[in-house]
Amino acid sequence: MTALLRAEGVSKAFGGVQALSDCTIEVAEGSITGLIGPNGSGKTTLFNVITGYEQVDAGDVYLGGRRITNAPPDKVFTAGIGRTFQLTRVFSRLTVMENMIIAAHHKERGGRQGRSWNPFARAGGPATRRRAMELLEFTGIANHAGALAETLSYGQRKLLEMSYVLMADPEIVLLDEPAGGVNPTLITLLADRIRELNAKGTTFLIVEHNMDFVMGLCHQVTVLDYGTAVVTGPPELIRTDHRVLDAYLGTAEEDDDIPAA
């Protein structure tokens, strides 16, 4: 399969700490790819350099054939990469619908080179609100459209954040611990919605500590250790690969995120 997203030889240090070291990953177009590793292995840093929240020290990032290395976050967003965060980032003092309209404003302002213009061209107009309601219904939180975002549960905020990202019709969505702190019912709903979106052509790269979620959802899984991609493969091989077990060695008593052997 063709790689939609590639990070090639990416390195990033914070002072004396090497967060990423010559890290190379590929996300195949149309796939659901997982990114796992022990705490501190560089997963969120990799998300940050891909999406422009951190600058790389070396290496390059490509979306399709386009180099987006060190592009600012708004340019990355309008290029076709949507992203959620480990700690949700929604506008808590605005309503759920107002959050969705802000996402449409971002899309309208940035546009998308080489792609057709969004059908809900005037952000905040009837077409935008219809699209927003469709997405809120899709994620199961439409009945909260008029509520302030701060009144939502943590799991519902995660669903709002994903709905917000989908307003931009991204080619690829990066999800940072989507199942973290979410109750089992919402985790099941989230997995179902990811599969449904993927079946319609959306590509996903997912950082997650919930191994049942990753192994049951992803087509391919890449394992990071000390800022480097050590192995990539289908879930059934990742579970038993000695490099994966070595990467998690020493965390067994502290973490519940070790792949089953």
Short synopsis of the structure:
With about 260 residues, the chain is an alpha/beta fold. It is about 35% helix and about 25% strand.
Would you write up a description of this structure?
By secondary structure, this protein is of the alpha/beta class. The chain folds into two domains: 1-80 and 170-261, Rossmann fold, CATH 3.40.50.300; 90-169, no CATH class. Helices cover 35% and strands 24% of the residues. The protein is built from nine helices and ten strands. It has helices at 43-50, 73-79, 96-110, 126-139, 154-166, 184-199, 211-217, 235-238, 242-248, and strands at residues 3-14, 17-28, 32-36, 58-63, 66-67, 81-83, 172-176, 203-207, 220-225, 228-233. The chain has a six-stranded mixed sheet with strand order 6-7-8-3-9-10, sandwiched between helices. Strands 2-1-4-5 form a four-stranded antiparallel sheet, covered by helices on one side. Strand 7 (172-176), helix 6 and strand 8 (203-207) form a beta-alpha-beta unit. Helix 3 (96-110) packs across helix 4 (126-139) and helix 4 crosses helix 5 (154-166). It is globular and about 50 Å long. The chain starts with a strand and ends in a 13-residue tail after the last helix. The model is unreliable at 111-123 and 250-261 (pLDDT under 50).
